[in-house]
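Lay summary. Proteins are chains of building blocks that fold into shapes, and those shapes determine what they do. In this project we predict the shape from the chain. Here is one chain we studied, written as its sequence of building blocks.
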Amino acid sequence: MPANRSPRSTFLRRGFAVVAALPLLTLAACGYGSDSKDDSANQKVAAGSKKIDGLDSVKIGYFGNLTHATALVGRGQGLFQKELGATKAEYATFNAGPSEIEALNAGSIDIGWIGPSPAINGFTKSDGKSLKIIGGSASGGVKLVVNPKKIKSLKDVKGKKIATPQLGNTQDVAFLNWIADQGWKVDAQSGKGDVTVVRSDNKVTPDAFKAGSIDGAWVPEPTASKLVAEGGKTILDESTLWPDKKFVITNIIVSQKFLAAHPKAVEAVLKASVETNKWINANPDQAKAAANKQLGIDSGKELPADVLDSAWKSIQITNDPLASTLNTEADHAVKAGLLEKPDLNGIYDLTVLNKVLKTEGDSPVDAAGLGTS
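And here is the predicted shape, written in a compact code that computers can read:
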């Protein structure tokens, strides 16, 4: 970390002051995320099914990204609803993690698919009381795509405008860390410096790229492949920066209050997640189509084949939360000046997941010393 940069940033006070804002957030809970279009045909309740833990519903959050394929496919195939019985699976979609953390704290969702950086910040800002990471979902699927007329090599990124999805989200932290590794300086809050970091909703980033208002973007799939379809060039795949080309891009989190009160509901969702991941890995082409169909339901438009194919092949679906890489991503946030050195002890609770995996005959996953496994 540069000597003139304090590890404590207004990022924690402004962007993630979720604990202090809980009363307000609870009142405004309906403002977080977007309720997806009705897909009741895939949410049929089997005759004779009963509610789990006496719950009328379980509220599940995820992003409209292919890196959240487990949630997309599990919803579209009705697997979450199947495991929840007569308890209704309700869904909300988000653009990036910070807003989903706010929704979790407000009670707008109970369980969510999310990137590591917002999970780290949500956990540390609440002094370890708000959430637990209860499973893995995906690795990879993040790229730096640029306008090849303006950026010929990585060194040409200096002085350019590069988009990330949101201040403090996983891709934003990764890009700020990469910038620092180049020896360049950027103010994390404003995004101004040797590179201009533009925080842009994934839905509008392709249009901004096409219009020339940004020169590139460090983004997850399918946004990265959408930029390529608009004439962009992938100049860096984030997986190449990690050992074995594996790093956590999507985890499953749960409200600690919900986990304590409704463990059977959490187990049902995790069982559906494991079943979904098994089906995805065994049927990649069908799973790709199923994920795309749900994206179309959520956004009103499915991905064209060239974008879908390019995006899908860069994502690895896994139950393993890749806990050791979470520590590294936390270090990246510290290095960027967005976070104090966090105490992540207890951020994971993998007991329910490992129970499900044992039942399925699969190997347990490890919390890398950061929780109960």
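What the prediction tells us: The longest helix spans residues 263-282.
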